[in-house]
Design goal:
globular; 2 domains; mainly alpha; TPR_rpt; Serine Threonine Protein Phosphatase 5, Tetratricopeptide repeat
Length: 138
Amino acid sequence: MTTLPAILQEPIQALLDEGDKQFDKGRFDAALAKYEEARALLPSDLERWEASTWVLAAIGDACFLMGEHDRGQQALAQASECPEGSTNPFIQLRLGQCEFELGRLDQAVVALSLAYATGGEEVFEDEDAKYRACVHQR
């Protein structure tokens, strides 16, 4: 895992923090705009940087909550390729939820099962029961 130089890390973190403030107020579109600004600052070799994991996860989360499941799936799949993304229960949960909403049940089961394996029942605690059921039915 590689940390970005401070000259990039600091403005990216500031944008993430601004986005998170908007997100917490339910302003997902404003949050997404800040997260996208942060993504624009990342080096092109995204999968190398820890910051990429968090920026892409934030984009995916906002997209999921806005009902933009295809865009969310793309960001979260990319986040899965970044440091610790493939074993992060939240990233796998949101990826599985996007896949589920897109009707890709086989992919949904894989991601949701990984979320369950790494995060347990509590990762599904505040989520619609259909996602937990998807794991247990397969």
